[in-house]
Amino acid sequence: MFTIESLINEAIFQHEGFADNISEESNAATADEFSKFGITQKMLSKYYGRAAFKYEVEALSEEVARDIYESHYYIAARINNLPKTIQVFIFDCALKHGVRRAIKLVQSVCNQAGYKANVSEDGAMGPNTRRAAEWAEKVMDTVFLQALIEERRNFYQIIVEARPSKQAFLADWLKRLNLFEREIA
Q1: Using CA atoms, how far apart are residues 168 and 27, in angstroms rounded to an integer?
Q2: How many angstroms separate the first and last alpha carbons of the chain?
Q3: What's the alpha-carbon Rg for the chain, to the nearest Å?
Q4: What is the arrangement of strands in the sheet containing 19-21, beginning at the earlier edge strand?
C-alpha cells in the first residue's frame, strides 16, 4: 500500500542519493539540470529562497530532500486539503508530473463528473477545487479514485501521441497505475 512516506522514500531512493543529470523521463525543464535525490538545483533554490549552487545540490542531505518533497509537493501544493482517499495518488502525480498537472487531473475529473460549479482547470489548489473534490468523493466514492487513474492513463496517451519517443516509458507508467488500481480493488 502506498503512503506519502513510502512515495517520498521511493523518490529519494530511486535516485540512490547520487547527484546526477536529470533523465529524459523526468519533468525537468532541461535534460542537463543537476539533481540529487531527485531534487533539482531549481527546486533547492526555491526551498532556500535564493539561488542554490551546484555544490549545495551535491551536498544535499536526505533529511532536507524529505522536507522538500513533503513541504513542496504535499503541504505547499495543498494536497493535504484534498480528501484522504485521493491524497496519495495525487501526491504521486505531483511527484511525477508536477503539482499543477496533478491538480488539473482532479479538476478535470470533478468537471466530468458534473460538479455544479464547474471548477476552473487551472492547476491551482484553492477552496473551489477542495469543495469539488469533496463533492466528487461523496458522490462517486471509490469511483473517484478510479476516474483519476483513468484521467492519468489518458494523460500518458497524450504524452506518447505528442512525443512518440516517450513510448519507451509507457509500459512502466501503466504498470504504476495498475499498482494503484490493485489497491482499490
Answers
A1: 16
A2: 12
A3: 17
A4: 19-21, 34-36, 39-40
Which residue type, as a one-letter code, is found at position 8? I
3 state SS of 19:
strand
**Contacting residues for 96 by C-beta, under 8 A, at least 6 apart:** 27
Please give the Cα distance from 70 to 96 (Å, whole number). Answer: 14
- How far is it, in rounded angstroms, from Cα 11 to Cα 17? 10
- How open is the CA angle 113-7-59, to the nearest 5 degrees? 135
Name the residue ranges covered by the structural domains of the chain: 4-75, 84-184
| pTM assigned to the model | 0.85
Q: Is the pLDDT of residue 18 over 60?
A: no
**How confident is the model over 22-76, as pLDDT tens digits?**
444 444 444 457 789 989 999 999 999 999 999 999 999 999 999 999 999 999 9
Instruction: Pick the range with the lowest mean pLDDT from 5-19, 41-55, 114-128.
Output: 5-19
Task: Judge contact between 95 and 66, C-beta under 8 A.
Answer: no
**At 104, is the secondary structure helix, strand, or coil?**
helix
CA proximity to 157, closest of 144, 145, 146, 173: 173
How far are the Cα atoms of 77, 124, 127, 135, 163 from residue 5, in angstroms, in the given order?
16, 24, 25, 27, 32
